[in-house]
Amino acid sequence: SAPGTATVIAAVGNVTKSIDITFSIQPTTPPPTGTIPTITAVTPATGPPAGGTQVAITGTNFRSPARVLFDIGDGSPKEAFVVSVSSTQIVAITPRIDLTVGQTKAADVIVITQAGTSGEQRVVKTGGFTYQLAVLTPVIRSLAPTSGPIGGGTRVTIIGDAFQTPVQVFFGAAEAQVISLNFDNIIVMSPRASDTSAGGSGVVTGPVTVTVRNVGSGTSATSPVSFRYTPKMQITTAGPTEGPFTGGTRIRIDGVGFDDPLAVSVAGVAAQVISVAGSEVIVQTVGVNLTSCSDVTGPIIVTNTENGDSATGPAFIFRTPKPLIISISNPNTIPGTAQITVLNALGFPRITIGGVAANVTGTVVNPNGTTTFTVQIPPTIMLSQVSCPAGGSAPTPTAFTVVYTSATTGCTDTANNALIVTPAAVPVIFANPATFQPFQATITPNVAPAPPFPGTAVTPSGTQTVAIVNVGTAPMDITATTLTGLGCADFTVGPTVPPIITLNQCESLPIGVTFKGQTTPNTETCTLTVSSTGGNRTFLLVGTSR
User: Of the chain's two ends, which shows fewer C-beta atoms within 10 Å, N or C?
Assistant: First the structure.
């Protein structure tokens, strides 16, 4: 509009007012020459729709803060990530856009300098960058695994290059399910073998071609290695189905679908594969670790290592031999040794006698498969005792329980009261009671003394008896009773030995002692020694006259 004067009239009720207003054009001041930003080039000028391409935008008068937008004309420009800004160059990372296969899309590159300030300026490079999909030709280098069962479902990894979404993978004529896709690998699930033949008829075994097709570019590649369909693995027979837990059993497994290399487990333990020949596998068991004295049972499982196909066969039993105590030498003595013969004595032996650990001093493996152990009779085991009528007790032959344990298997066998220990054949002396009490003789006056009778008389003490008992197991000879000391003349001991007196086990000899005393008050002592083949006993005799 042109400049001029206008009259403005306002009426409120019956009151009217007017005013004249003059309009004029305010002159604009253009920005100084040389401050307007310009774009001369975008390098590179093309890139993939996934974004991520680093571009250099060259021009003039770039000032921070700066923004860069890529506009493909969809009404929603995409902002790039600005890496750096100088007066003549902006480095940015292209944003991602959606692009249909086979399309290219030109984008205007928009640069905003001094963004968000009063000095903000904008410059556009029309069609400055083009998004386009690369035309890639796939290359297949290898397959893993290279075989699988005819039922399909094998997870196959295709290794190569230039794989591009969307992609199709074919096993023969059958399209496989794509699980994941990367530039250098594809993971698929193999289709059923029956679908790989033309027309989808018949069951196919053997090799089929694997083809990868990049749908967008229409390019494809065929694997240099075929995928081979094998019959579904099946175990028909296997034997033997038991063996020792130590391993070493050779098992023949018959069936179909065996593909070398393969793995075999027997009762959960990996077996050594000896040979694989299509329908026959030979393996050898290895030892199992036992946790208890019991057999270990589990199935025979064959697994094709490459494709994971597996089959389960009959159960195999790892037998754990149970030990059996066959014989024990009797009788035995303390100290001494015993021979214990055990069937199925495996590994390190532990043997107890009467609950006390016995030291194994010798081991002999017999021709009949048994093992004879020589063990020391524990010196701490307690023999049974018989009470002697005159006092004390004597040991008698005693039966002890023997327990054999295999430290390797943990298996045990018990022979109750099977080992007889007899006491050593020696005499042992025992005295009951162990001492004589003090003796006392009584002095009394003579009421009517007449020459040559003394004026006083003495009454001897009562007789004390100690029983000498043989508490040993062999006959004991009492060889002597000996009195020593100044006061022995006042003591009477009986019987007097020699002659030798022989005592069998628990037989006794009573030794009686009397103190005769003297007519004057005094105390006499004497030592009595009883000597025997079972030891000696010494008694102190003390007699008092008063």
Answer: N
Task: Give, in degrees to the nearest 5, the angle at Cα 57 between 51 and 61.
Answer: 145
Q: Same topology for domains 139-230 and 234-319, yes or no?
A: yes
pLDDT tens per residue, range 96-149? 998 765 567 899 999 999 999 999 999 999 999 988 877 778 999 999 999 888
* 430-545: CATH architecture: Sandwich (2.60)
Tokens 């009986």 belong to 494
Fold designation for 324-422: Immunoglobulin-like (2.60.40)
CATH (residue range 38-129):
2.60.40.10
> 419 with 330: CB under 8 angstroms?
yes
Residue 413 contacts residue 322 (beta carbons within 8 Å): yes
Write down how long the chain is.
Answer: 546
Distance CA 139, CA 212 (A): 8
| DSSP bridge pairs for 327 | 341
* Interval 40-49: pLDDT, tens: 999 999 888 8
Cα–Cα distance measured from residue 375 to residue 359, given in angstroms and rounded to the nearest whole number: 5
Q: What is the CATH number of domain 139-230?
A: 2.60.40.10
Q: First-to-last CA distance in the chain?
A: 169
Residue 290 pLDDT more than 70?
yes
Q: In what order do the strands lie in the sheet with 38-43?
A: 38-43, 54-60, 89-93, 81-85
